[in-house]
């Protein structure tokens, strides 16, 4: 009996590391066109990524940020590009969630539209997958235990 408990506990150890991803937030973002470039960042459950660090890199300088700051309470940040080219926007909430997006600004200072809204699995879907994996492993362990008794 102790051996069975040891096998079950030992087989569940990898799932201790997976549980962080089950409850972690995904990131949803949207880039809007206006007189300025506005990026709105939120987690996949709709909660805004408030006060996250933002860095803006110009097309001419890839290492030193052109502008930096934080998103507001609603997860929004705005900046005004001064030259045409591909601007890089990085957003990081300091807890492992973030976005890296490139925005192309044309010569007429018009933003090339971005239609990429990235969605990840919901918390419920992650929970169901995690439970299914644990249930499946328990079934495999029980199968081999019963098979061993039958022989």
Descriptive notes:
This protein has 151 residues and is of the alpha+beta class. Helices cover 33% and strands 28% of the residues. It is built from two helices and seven strands. A four-stranded antiparallel β-sheet has the order 4-3-6-7, with no helix packed on it.
Give a nutshell description of this structure.
The protein is an alpha+beta fold and 151 residues long. It has 2 domains: 1-25 and 121-151; 27-119, Macroglobulin (MG2) domain (Immunoglobulin-like). The protein is 33% helix and 28% strand.
Can you lay out the helices and strands and say which pair or pack?
Layout: H1 2-23, E1 27-33, E2 37-43, E3 53-57, E4 67-70, E5 76-79, E6 85-92, E7 98-105, H2 123-150
Antiparallel strand pairs: 1-2, 2-5, 3-4, 3-6, 6-7
Helix pairs in contact: 1-2
Could you estimate the helical fraction of the residues in percent?
25-40%
Number of DSSP E strands: 7
Radius of gyration: 23 Å
Largest pleated sheet: 4 strands, antiparallel
Strand order of the largest sheet: 4-3-6-7
One letter per element, helices H and strands E, the order comes to HEEEEEEEH
CATH topology of the largest domain: Immunoglobulin-like
Portion in strands: 25-35%
By CATH reckoning, the class of the largest domain would read Mainly Beta
**Which whole number gives the mean pLDDT?**
80
Which stretches are poorly predicted, pLDDT < 50 over at least 5 residues? 19-23
Tally of structural domains: 2
Give the terminus-to-terminus CA distance. Answer: 18 Å
CATH superfamily of the largest domain: Macroglobulin (MG2) domain
If classified by CATH, what would the architecture of the largest domain be?
A: Sandwich
Inertia-based shape: rod-shaped
Specify the number of helices: 2
């Amino acid at each position: 009996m102790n051996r069975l408990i040891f096998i079950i506990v030992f087989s569940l150890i990898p799932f201790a590391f997976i549980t962080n991803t089950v409850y972690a937030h995904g990131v949803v973002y949207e880039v809007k066109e206006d007189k300025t470039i506005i990026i709105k960042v939120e987690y996949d459950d709709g909660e805004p990524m408030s006060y996250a660090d933002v860095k803006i890199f110009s097309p001419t300088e890839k290492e030193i940020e052109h502008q930096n700051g934080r998103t507001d309470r609603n997860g929004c940040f705005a900046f005004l590009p001064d030259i045409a080219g591909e601007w890089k926007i990085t957003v990081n909430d300091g807890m492992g969630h973030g976005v890296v997006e490139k925005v192309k600004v044309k010569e007429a200072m018009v933003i090339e539209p971005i239609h990429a809204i990235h969605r990840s699995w919901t918390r419920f879907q992650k929970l169901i997958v995690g439970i299914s994996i644990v249930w499946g492993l328990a079934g495999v362990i029980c199968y081999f235990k019963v098979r061993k008794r039958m022989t």
